[in-house]
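Why do we care about 3D structure at all? Because function follows from shape, and shape follows, mostly, from sequence. That is the central idea of this module. The next example makes it concrete: a single protein chain, its amino acid sequence, and then its structure expressed as tokens.
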Amino acid sequence: MAKDNTTVSIGIIAFGPIAERLGGRKHTLEVPTGSTVREIVESMNLGEWISFGLSVAIDGNRCAIDTVVENGAEVALLPPVSGG
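And the structure:
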């Protein structure tokens, strides 16, 4: 079946407590074309992590939370590191 242009397929790689919350590090999602990382994070019920200082990367390059994802992109969700 041919893929339509209303969705794109992306990979999610989660780290630390985000991976624990999602039940694993790697996930594949179909999201609406034109979706931003912020919209994806919020759709995964992880919106509070944005205010905690979540960093994100697409295909290994750090990017802004409002960056639009393209088909086949790999989005890394990097929670802030704490310690002492």
